[in-house]
Batch of 2 targets.
Target 1
Amino acid sequence: MANEVISALMTRRAIRAFKPEQITDEELMTVLEAGTWAPSGRGMQSAQMVVVQNEELMKQIVRMNGEVLGDTSRNPYYGAPTVILVFAPEDRTTYVEDGSCLLDTLMVAAESIGLGSCWIHRERQMFETEEGKQLMAQWGLAPEMKGIGALSLGYIEGEKPEPKPRREGYYTIIK
Ligand SMILES: Cc1cc2nc3c(=O)[nH]c(=O)nc-3n(C[C@H](O)[C@H](O)[C@H](O)COP(=O)(O)O)c2cc1C
C-alpha cells in the first residue's frame, strides 16, 4: 500500500548539507506543531523543544557539541540555519523514548514539506556541563531536563543521499 505518509517515511534521509538561507516561520511552525502531536508515555507531553536560529547561540552550541565529540574543527550540525534541541525530564520513566518520538515526528514532518533534517547526538553531555546548565536555566528549563538529541533543519543543498538497502530479516512475523 502507498500513501503520502508512507512515502515521507521512506524518502526521508539524513541531510548533512544545507543552504545558508533560513527556513520560513511558517515552515518552522508547521514542523514544531507536528512535533507537539508526537506520542509520549502516559500522554504526558513531557519533552520540550528549544529552537536555535540566533547566530551567536548557534556558534556556541556548535562548539559545545564539537567539544563532546572531541572535534571542534567541523560543524556537527552541518551548518543548518535552524537547530531544534530536544529535552525531556529524567524523572519520567519514558523520557528518552518521549524525546526520541518527538525527534522522529519532527523529521518526518520536515520531509513532508520538503525540508532537510538530520538527527544529531550528544546533547545529553552538552547540557550536563556547567555551560549547558546555565543555558538551560536562561531558557527556563528545569534542572531535571536532559538533552535527548537535536534536529538540524533547513533547505537541502545538493542531492539527497542514496539510502542503504534495507537489511534482510528486519522483521519476524509469527502467526
Ligand atoms: C539516535 C540517532 C543519533 C544520530 N546522531 C547523528 C549524529 O550525531 N550525526 C549525524 O550526522 N547523524 C546522526 N544520526 C543520523 C543517522 O546517521 C542516520 O539516520 C543513518 O545514517 C541512516 O540514514 P537515513 O536517516 O538517511 O536513513 C543519528 C540518528 C539517530 C537515530
Note: The pocket of flavin mononucleotide is lined by residues 13-14, 16, 118-121, 163 (CB under 6 Å).
Target 2
Amino acid sequence: MSRKLWLPYAQMDTAPELIRVTNAQGVYLHLDDGRKLIDGISSWWSVIHGYSHPKINAAAKDQIDRFSHMMLCGLGNDPAELLAERLVEMTPDPLQHVFFSDSGSVGVEVAMKMAIQYWGNKGTPKSRFLAFRNAYHGDTTACMSVADPSEGMHSTFRGLAPEQLFAPMPNDCGSCGGGCDHLVQVESMLAAQASELAAVIIEPLIQCAGGFRRNSPEFLKSLRRLCDQYGVLLIFDEVATGFGRTGTMFALDQAQVCPDLLVLGKGLTCGYSAHAATLASRQIYAGFNPSTASPAFMHGPTFMGNALACRIALAGLDLFVEENRLASVACTENQLERGLSNLSVEGVVDTRVLGAIGVIEVDDPKRLVGAQAFAMERGVWIRPFERYLYTMPPYVITTQEMDRVIETMRAWCESDAFQSGVGT
Ligand SMILES: Cc1ncc(COP(=O)(O)O)c(C=O)c1O
C-alpha cells in the first residue's frame, strides 16, 4: 500500500488506517462515522485545556486578524515579549531569560547548545552530557543522544548522535535522601568526568515516554547539589511535566530546585500550535555577555517567538487562574489514586499516579495488544505503549468522564484477553 502521508514511528505497509477526526470539543474527539471518544491522552499530552476552548479560540482569532507571525530579528511583537515576562514571573528567580523555539525537541537542543556554548565562552570547553537511562528528550539528533541508549534510535543513528554518559534512573525513589545507589553512581560519574561534562539533563519527577519512572524531590535536590559541587550545569526537561501535569505548575516547584536551564513545550501552547521555551538563569545569560567579548548564542529558528503561538500560550496561562486548573488536576489525581491503586490482578505489576498522570504497568507488552480497540468500543481514546497502559487527560475532564477512562483501563486488565496475555 502506498501512502502520501508518512506517519510517525510506523511501518507504512502495515500501519492501520487512521481514525478520522472531523471535530474536537472539550475532551471529545468526534469521528467521521458519528462516534465520539474521550481523549484520555490529550493528543500526546498537549491539549491541557481541552479542544477548541472558547477563550483560546478568541485569542487566536484576534491574533490572526492582526498578524500570525513576525520574524524575531529586528522586529518585535507583544505576545512574545509578554509571554517571556510571564514565564519568568512563574519560575524561580534565577531563571530570567527566555529563548523561544519551534518544538520540545528543538527546545532541548537549544538548552544543550546553550550549555556547550556557555562553557566555550568561559574558555573551559565542555560538550558532553550526563543523561539517564529510559529518558526521552525528543527525536532530533542531540535529543536522541541523551535518550535511553539501548532504545532503537541509538543503534540506528550511531555515528550521527554524539556518545553521552548514562546513569541509571531510579524508579519510585520516594524517600531517597542523598545516599541511594543511584546518586552514588551519579556522583562517581561526575567525579570522574566533570571536566568533560557540560550538563546533566533530566525529566524531573517523572520520565513520561521512557516508562513513567519516578524520581523524587530529594533525588533532584541531591542532583542540584552534586552539579554545583562538580561545576556541571543542570537542565530540567519539563516538556512533558510542565504546566500542571504533575500537580504543580512545574515539577521543579515540588522539588524546590532551580535548574540552570529549563525546557518547556507541549502544554505551553495548549495543543494549538508548536512552540517551546528554553529558560536560562542569569548566570548562563551572563556567559554570553558582549562586555566579556563572548560570542552571541548561535541559534535562531524562523518561527521563534511566533506571535500566534505566544498569544495562545498567554490565553492558556490565564485559564490556570480563571478556571483554577491546578484544583482540577488535584481532583483528577485523587480520582486516579482511588481508581487505580487497588487494581490487583495477575499481570499488573504496578500502578502509578502523579498529578494528571495515571499508569498501569504490566508484565508483558502482549497483554496490551487490543487495549486500544477495547477502549474505543467504550468511547475512550488511549494509546498504550510497551508495558504501559496510561492516561494523561485534558485537565477539563469531568469526574464522570474520568471515571469512564479509569473504568475502561481497569476493565481491560480484568478482561479475558488481558488475562490470557494474547490480546484480542
Ligand atoms: C520530556 C520530553 N522532552 C522532549 C520532547 C519532544 O517534544 P516534541 O515532540 O515537541 O519535539 C518530548 C515529547 O514527548 C518529551 O516528552
Note: Residues 103-105, 108, 136-138, 203, 208-209, 237, 239-240, 265 surround pyridoxal-5'-phosphate (CB under 6 Å).
